[in-house]
Each structure stands twice: as C-alpha cells, then as structure tokens.
Model the fold of this input.
Amino acid sequence: MSSSRIVRASVVQACTQAYSLTDTLDKMERLTRLAFERDRAQIAVFPEAFIGGYPKMSTFGVVVGDRSDVGREEFLKYYNAAIDIPSPAITRIEQISKETGVFIVTGVIERDLGTLYCTAIFVSPVHGFVGKHRKLVPTAAERLIWGQGDGSTLPVLETSFLPTAERATEVTTKISASICWYCEIHAGSIFVLISSPRENFMPLLRTYYYSQGTQLYCAPTVDARPAWQNSMVHIAIEGRCFVLSACQFAQEKDYPADHAVADVNARHPDNVMIAGGSVIVSPLGKILAGPLLGEEGVLSADLDLDDCIRGKFDLDTTGHYARPDVFELKASIY
Done:
C-alpha cells in the first residue's frame, strides 16, 4: 500500500472462562500479546461480554408474574462476575494495553450499584481507560439482567497510533463501538435467554456515529449467524468505515458445569454454545479477514484509512449524500 495512514488491527474470537475474572483477564493478556507479537496489531477488539460473560440459554428463573429463588441465586452469581468501572480489573486491562502498546476495545458486563450493563470499554496504551459505551436497548429477556444505556455514553474517540518500527508515521483515527444484535429461534416449550442487543440494527445510532466521522466501527457481538456477515458488510458500505466485528466462540466446557444448555439430555463439553464468525470489512465492503468459525483465534488486517475518503467520493450518508431538508437527526447527548 502506498498510503502512510495505515493501522494494523485485530479482532479476537474468544470466550469468557467459566465466569472466572482472573482466568478471563489472563486469556485477554495472552491473546493481546499474540495479536501484537505475531501480527504487530495496534488495536485489538474483543467480543461482547468478554469480561463477565454472556449467559447464553439462561432463564434466571423467570416467567411472567413470578421470579424463583433459584433465579435470584443465578443472578447473584452473574452479578458477582461483573466488574465496576473503575476497578482492579480495569487497571489490569490498562496494564495489558500499556505493556503491549495495543489499544483495546472489549465488551464487559459493568456493575453500577444494583444494575448491570452490557458495556464496551476503550483502553489506550498511553492514556489508559478513555471511554465506555453502554448498550442502549437490551432485547427481550436480556432486559431482565441488563439496564439501558443512554446518550451520555456514545463516544467517538479520536485516537493517535504512535510510530512503530514497521510504520514511521503517527496515524490519527476515530473509533466507535456498537454492541451486537442477535436472535435465534429454538423449537420447544422451554423459555431461554437467546437474544442480544439491537444496536447494529438501529439506523439512527449508526447515523449518529457516521455523523461524528467514525472510521473504525467496532462491533463486539455474540451473533454467529451467517446473516451477521451481511449486516457487517452493509454497515461498512453505508458508513464508508472499517468494521471490526469480534464474536465469541464458546462451548459448553467454557461455562460453569451447572449452566443451562440447549439440550440437558445431550450435554457434552464440545457442544457449541456460540459459533464465532468474527470478521474485518473494508469501507467498500471487501472482507479483509474472516469470517472465522468453529474455533478461537485472532484475525488481523492492514486498514488504509484513506479508503474511508475514497469511499466517500460517491457516498457520504451524513454529508453530500444526505438530505437535511427532508430528514433531520436529533441526538440527545447528555
């Protein structure tokens, strides 16, 4: 590539380690070091709920009009696996970022007094924790366990990547995060928690990020369906931005032994709970890496930021291709 405005980026496909914070942070360090040492990554995106866990298949003992004692105990366990911001866990992530020189975007389950939030945090190797985004709308049964975010946590962060041995020029870019969307349908009469937030399917949220000039659109997720890839390509083309989507890959063995599964009569450590599908997409819709399916791993690619401008030559959805005389976006940013 002739451009000097190149960022080396990785998406990490991995899962929470049985709700163990220590083991999960150790895994984060190992995979961040792999992204840097093998691929010379400058930014690494981890999946939704990587810290704290995504409780796939859990019911939390809820039916309309009643909550069970067993469900309250399950929520207590999940609450105790979450993290405060700030906290020693955030300090550890800051240390990983500083030691590797990698900017980290990761999903966490954030604990704030009595409420949990599905959150993405941004951690700089120079400045440490620099921002967070709380998911705006949990879907369906997720509303039992996660609160709603608001306009106070919609950052589009301007970040500079310092020169490296491979890249002599400092590069400045804008980074945002939008967390997931997921829906599966399972036959049977048992109610299970199977949906995830609608954020990447919220056109006005995307439009807000485009209006702020996002170039690295991070999409932490647990959506492993093939249709997810179509959404990521569409967003990249629509926003003329790079999309970095990191999905969990998880098997039954990665959850506590008593965790809910799709079929209790066919439990097996290797049964897949979340199948992956991490991907990196260019502003013109080209798949640069992935999709990775059926295993944990790290995908990396060179991102030429000038491709965002090349793409906006014929499509800038909040600029020359907008019609503010017909449509107007009013964002309530606190």
User: Anything to note?
Assistant: The mean pLDDT is 90.
